[in-house]
Amino acid sequence: MLDVSNLNVSYGKQKVLRDVAFSLKGGEVVTLIGSNAAGKSTTLRTLVGLKKQASGTISFNGADIGAMETVDRVKAGLVLVPEGRQIFPRLTVNENLLMGAYHRADRDHVDDDLERIFTMFPRLRERRVQRAGSMSGGEQQMLAIGRGLMSRPKLMLLDEPTLGLAPIIIEELGVIVRRLAAEGLTILLAEQNAVMALGCADRAYVLKSGSIVASGDAKELSETSEVKQMYLGA
């Protein structure tokens, strides 16, 4: 579904990504783990066109999308749930969710998808007329994921969804990721929280200083000494 090859990205003279290459198959959960400033968010922002690559290719469902505008990537099914949630604080929960469907032509199915989101996240149903900015961090993260799902993604990019959340909410998010995967959604998860990420993912890539330094089966990778020392506190 997604093939990234020799991706290089810079901010001014500073090179942030160096020959990054990875792939996802349909129905997989793949995680990019790494410390702060490893290049995870830059990778996801580049995939959706918010940051332009200096070189390299991004192929989505067999098409080169490197020159495609962000809105067209979203229409193609590539959707980012950004770091920090980026919800619209003055809009209601319901209005935030509808923003996720702004580009859709199949307006007759939007209400059905709203009901699906409210079934998945009962707390959002309870707060559907509440301003999003007044909710807790965990509820806002659920709203951000729900808004992404309203776009009917083929591939969802989750950027640091556990950032700043309590352990019990992180555990709940892990359950949500696994549930979405079981329903057939392909997910690329960028995370500092390697315990959560490796527990959810089928495969993993370790990103360090802008380069992929390790990859493999998520469970097997979690048992390597390097990953244990660097990310799992062993």
What distance separates the N and C termini? 34 Å
Structural class: alpha/beta
Task: Tell me, briefly, the overall form.
Answer: globular
pLDDT average, as an integer?
94
Q: What kind of oligomer do you see? A: single chain
Which percent range fits the helix content?
25-40%
Please describe the biggest sheet, giving its number of strands, its sense, and whether it closes into a barrel.
6 strands, mixed
Number of helices: 10
**What is the element string, with H for helices and E for strands?**
EEEHEEHEHHHHEHEHEEHH
Q: Numbering strands along the chain, what is their spatial order in the largest sheet?
A: 6-7-8-3-9-10
Using DSSP, what is the number of strands? 10
Percent of residues in beta strands?
25-35%
Low-confidence residue ranges:
none
* Spatial extent as radius of gyration: 17 Å
Keywords:
10 strands; alpha/beta; 6-stranded mixed β-sheet; 4-stranded antiparallel β-sheet
Structural features, described:
The chain has helices at 40-47, 70-76, 93-99, 110-120, 122-126, 137-149, 167-182, 194-200, 218-222, 225-231; strands at residues 2-11, 14-24, 29-33, 55-60, 63-64, 78-81, 155-159, 186-191, 203-208, 211-217. With 234 residues, it is of the alpha/beta class. Strands 6-7-8-3-9-10 form a six-stranded mixed sheet, sandwiched between helices. Strand 1 and strand 2 (14-24) form a beta hairpin. The chain starts with a strand and ends with a helix. The mean pLDDT is 94.
